[in-house]
Amino acid sequence: MDESVVVAPDWLATHLEDPQLRIVDVRDAWEYDGIGHIPGAVSVPFDRYRDESDVDRGTLPGADAFAALLSDVGIAPDDTVVVYDDTHGVFAARFVLTALEYGHDDVRLLDGDYSAWNRAYETTSDTPELEPTSYDPDPLTRGESPLIGFDAVEDALERGSLFVDTRDKHEFEEARLPGAVRFDWREAVDDETRRLKSEAELEALLADDGITPDREIVLYCNTARRISHTYVVLRALGYEDVHFYEGSLTEWLANDGAIETGPVDEE
């Protein structure tokens, strides 16, 4: 796994004293305060970087709002940021995607979640002292960003891109984009260790569904949360031509996009 994208608990444990390391806990505030957290972590609950009020912007909070959030918790543009949750990384991955979109170069997902960390390392209830920064965002341009919208999705369908649906089977059968394959985002996680499966296992699983690095890939789910995890996993594996349909099926259906329904042979 590319350590510039995903880091193991061992890596994080050996870098806790790095003055440019910032750890972000995206669980609910009561979990951060009541259950404990990784030493040095700041609390940024998931709902603080999710905006459902602007349909044109999907669930992204906006560059200025996100920059203000990072400033409040003492994060500077050149800091190394490691993010975790306690739900196998799916909410943390959304933070990673958001930070990348708004120009933070060094943001990484913790391989495993709080429970995985807690099995091997100490946690704390101490809240770190925060010194606010003045964070200036540098959002990716249209050509740089992996995010695409409805029109670009239509174009991708026409040129035969591989659409990957990361939802549950019953959701997939109810409605999906034409020709899509299903890769449940949780397939990437080992239930016993709570960490990502090995690189070889992941590559084999993806290849079984035709999800290979030579394909142009478009990810979608319902509201762009679950695809965040799969997007980070693919980046960590070295996939380069990966697009992220931020509007996902919610926008697609609202615009009367073509769909398929019913069961498919996933063997």
From TrEMBL:
This is Thiosulfate/3-mercaptopyruvate sulfurtransferase. GO terms for molecular function: transferase activity. SUPFAM superfamilies: Rhodanese/Cell cycle control phosphatase. Transmembrane segments: none annotated. Residues 17-126, 157-261 form the Rhodanese domain. The keyword Iron-sulfur does not apply. Pfam families: Rhodanese. The keyword Repeat applies. Keywords: Pyruvate, Repeat, Transferase.
